[in-house]
Amino acid sequence: xxxxxxxxxxxxxxxxxxxxxxxxxxxxxxxxxxxxxxxxxxxxxxxxxxxxxxxxxxxxxxxxxxxxxxxxxxxxxxxxxxxxxxxxxxxxxxxxxxxxxxxxxxxxxxxxxxxxxxxxxxxxxxxxxxxxxxxxxxxxxxxxxxxxxxxxxxxxxxxxxxxxxxxxxxxxxxxxxxxxxxxxxxxxxxxxxxxxxxxxxxxxxxxxxxxxxxxxxxxxxxxxxxxxxxxxxxxxxxxxxxxxxxxxxxxx
Length: 252
Hints:
By secondary structure, this protein is α+β, with helices and mostly antiparallel strands. Helix content is 37%, strand content 15%.
């Protein structure tokens, strides 16, 4: 409770087998809700308003909605769970449209300072004005409520940072405007070239996704072609290319 993310990161809670039944699929949700009183008390000591706390843990409901859309099952057990546990122990704070993870930065010699990891909850369009308001608000918020963790950088690791999106999205798109705020770090090669394709399909398109392996033609045929992003996703992969999840850095 209340500690920042360590340099080695966070290990997600393992998935629960879908054969556990409808009651077991809610096990993680109940476990998280049990610590709400502790979280409220911790945030109160730091002077964090209760509406901020409520917004931060509300992501569990959004995840459960996505869980049902992707898997067809109520609950939260089939997804690897990493975001909500961080919210319920005070690591993740939602400020407006964006969520921020308190994290230690480290290089070869160990921790060197603090950063905020930026997440974009899947709760609707990413309007530029709302994203900018969240980013501007974050600097003063964390300086006020976590003064012992002076923020050196804001970091976003996401499919939204993929420069290839510029080939498909209009210049005025909210996603590209958000991306342009960051310095994007070149991505090292991945052992599994399909990993980021699967993650983009699950997180960005909110569609059922294979656990491993390539996205076959049968899978791609299931992607609706309603939006520019839907069409770009399929076109890009059918051209023999892959989507990526680069890191964008915004210095505080």
